[in-house]
Task: structure prediction
Amino acid sequence: NAGVTQTPKFQVLKTGQSMTLQCAQDMNHEYMSWYRQDPGMGLRLIHYSVGAGITDQGEVPNGYNVSRSTTEDFPLRLLSAAPSQTSVYFCASSQGSGWEYNEQFFGPGTRLTVL
Amino acid sequence: AQKITQTQPGMFVQEKEAVTLDCTYDTSDQSYGLFWYKQPSSGEMIFLIYQGSYDEQNATEGRYSLNFQKARKSANLVISASQLGDSAMYFCAMRTTSGTYKYIFGTGTRLKVLA
Result:
């Protein structure tokens, strides 16, 4: 059981480049989400999904795209990287979408720098 | 609007003493869950404890307990007998029904345990 995996761990991009951050979970979780973590701002939700084929925007969706074609995978696409997207990105998953005890399991994070 | 507020950016505690990390939340929902996560310097997010809005007793997990005061909308984390390994960033989070089950995080409190 690998849990939540993210690749790559580190990435440097130039302004305007595009790339995809990969996220996969092997726990058959319904709910998956992407966060960015910036100093002093906690974790901010970018996009989330409550199941395959269903995605929705979070707090800071601009400049990012997601899709969920399978239960396991939830890639995050940066369309045209900007220095403001320099951050640490976390993918997370949880068993269900309800408010009850549904601990989120986090991936190890991707540290992205945009020059 | 759903919101989590952590007013202590940083705290110090002496080893073996207890410490309380503050968290207040704002929601008009009756059904919600409150979570605490730990982020050590290595960067991973570690789930600590959960409290449901209908739970009558405060949640406890080993040295962690959650002081849940519903009327005050506070969900403070209490760490007893602090250890050097407790030095980390701590995040409070909430999940509600009207928030479409999104998790909302506070900005975090950095705890330093002194020997």
